[in-house]
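Form 12-C: Joint structure prediction
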Amino acid sequence: MTILFYIAALIAIVASIMVVTRTNIIHALLYMVISLLATAVMFFLIGAPFIAAMEIIIYAGAIMVLFVFVVMMLNLGKQAVEQEKRWLSTEGWYFPSLLSLILLLEIGYLIVSGQTAPFNGRQIPPAEVGKELYSTYLIGVELAAILLMAGIIGAYHLARRKKYVVHRFLKTEGAEQ
Amino acid sequence: MIAISLNTGLIIASIMFFTGLIGVMIRKNIMFMLISIEIMLNAAGLAFVFAGAQHGQADGQIMFLFILTTAAAEVAVGLALIIQFYQNLKRSIPMLPII
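Section 2 - Result
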């Protein structure tokens, strides 16, 4: 079981690094799906089966498919990949990566220098999560509902295509149908 | 059962988080920046679930559900902005190299 966890963690980290370094956006999205699936395996192994299912259904199934739909809609060609290759120049990423790695080393040192204890291995069933969610965190659920509502309305309002009406004499922009 | 300590899990989550942070800093394409933000949110949720599993409580998983909601709303609005941006600029620049 432990070796499975480490393999899943390695796959998740390697897939995340591949996402950051790809030039073709569809390849990056597929690597992101692999990373999310490996994360779901980790969740399942430490005793959170409900969250593993949510990760696959919502993250890998809904959010990534939304990304893929938008990429298909934008209909990017070969010149986008060429542009990305030119933008991903070497001198552009040395210094930010160095600074981030220093921060990562600091956080790793802080984590390692603390006390450590193995996971107690109790599997938390979905019923317990649901009971806690709808009793203690009820206000959070309502706030999440409001946030999703605002997201839906905002996405609809922003992505609406403005219609161009060309009259014989005057051209009006933004007339909505 | 599984013999992993909390420190190992938190280190894995930190490595994924900083991968996303590097992605946000080195990429100039807005689509890749959105995906990198997704990596960072996922890593934060991973840390929450690890901490919840450490204490055997369901609170970490509930926090992950809230992070999931936030990520979904953020992606919807961000992608709508990208679509609008692209369509508005494509009208004036035929071969748009930005996205």
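Section 3 - Comments
Chain B has one domain: 6-92. Chain B has a mean pLDDT of 86.
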